[in-house]
């Protein structure tokens, strides 16, 4: 039941963010995502891991969406003047809170595939609702697929390492090849 509530809560945060941005009220999405993150964190038995994942996701979101915006491939509504709108960054944080809850079953390969398909689909949906514009839709979709595949895989690996369910890569231990 908790996994379903986590999944449903993220979906509500996504809709609030996208519709809010499309209608000139991006703050609604920031508020919805913040509330989702806070509620999930309060009920979490893995608060330190969740905080680490949110921080990593925020950084990845700023880099990926910032690059796509700077390249001119995506135009975001509701964040005029900002390199990355707050509602997009907040969505990245909310997504991170699914990785130890409703998406806790993900393994790196499945995460890569989910990101490659789900990331672009979410942005295409947001474009249809008016929250973003994919200026060069082919390049933007390819970049989103690659970026989200890598980001979802990285976040899944961070979660698995922190839980002790994946081996630490040799370079992370200070060893050499």
From TrEMBL:
Superkingdom, natural source: Bacteria
Keyword entries, A-Z: Membrane, Transmembrane, Transmembrane helix
Residue stretches spanning the membrane: 12-39, 51-76, 82-99, 111-131, 137-159
Pfam families in the cross-refs: DUF2878
Name by which UniProt lists this protein: DUF2878 domain-containing protein
Lineage of the organism: Bacteria, Pseudomonadati, Pseudomonadota, Gammaproteobacteria, Lysobacterales
């Amino acid at each position: 039941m908790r996994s379903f509530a986590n999944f449903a809560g993220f979906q509500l945060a996504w809709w609030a963010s996208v519709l809010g941005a499309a209608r000139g009220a991006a703050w609604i999405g920031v508020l919805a995502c913040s509330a989702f993150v806070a509620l999930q964190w309060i009920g979490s038995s893995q608060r330190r891991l969740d905080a680490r994942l949110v921080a990593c996701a925020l950084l990845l979101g700023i880099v990926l969406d910032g690059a796509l915006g700077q390249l001119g491939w995506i135009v975001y509504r509701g964040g005029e003047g900002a390199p990355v709108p707050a509602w997009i960054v907040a969505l990245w944080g909310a997504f991170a809170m699914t990785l130890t809850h409703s998406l806790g079953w993900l393994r790196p390969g499945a995460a890569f595939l989910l990101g490659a398909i789900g990331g672009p689909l979410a942005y295409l949906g947001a474009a249809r609702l008016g929250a973003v514009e994919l200026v060069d839709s082919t390049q933007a979709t390819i970049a989103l697929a690659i970026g989200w595949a890598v980001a979802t895989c990285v976040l899944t690996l961070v979660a698995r390492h922190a839980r002790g369910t994946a081996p630490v890569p040799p370079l992370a231990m200070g060893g050499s090849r």
